Amino acid sequence: MHRRKINRITALRNTNGDWLEKPGKLGEIPSSRFLSLEDSDINFLQKEVTDEEIKATLFDMAPLKALGSDGYHVFFFQNQWDNIGGAVYAWVKEVFNGRHINPELNNTNRSYHKDWPTRRNIPIQTNKPL
After folding, report:
1. 48 found inside a domain
2. What phi-psi label fits residue 17: left (phi over 0), alpha (psi between -120 and 50 degrees) or beta?
3. The whole model's pTM is what?
């Protein structure tokens, strides 16, 4: 079965291990459960994205892995970079500066198997090789 969904958080686990799914209940999780950022992290995240970072990110993607929501593989953008790179730079920078993204651009087709869990508790491990 294929579903179209917009990325969103629909449930969080509280300190007791219970899933909170109702929007009002999600606010009951104390902010201390979330990581706090250092000033250096905030400064880094507020920096302007560079043309080099945009191009490197696009060219690090697998060219034929999956179609984008526009129906084009990443290969198209990589192959046509000399023609469209300037427009891609401008669009990405506008998005980072607060431009609204059309919700249709964020739609993906996902296939779910009936036996897959609807949510998983995936532990985050640090300092351990994958």
Report:
1. yes
2. left
3. 0.55
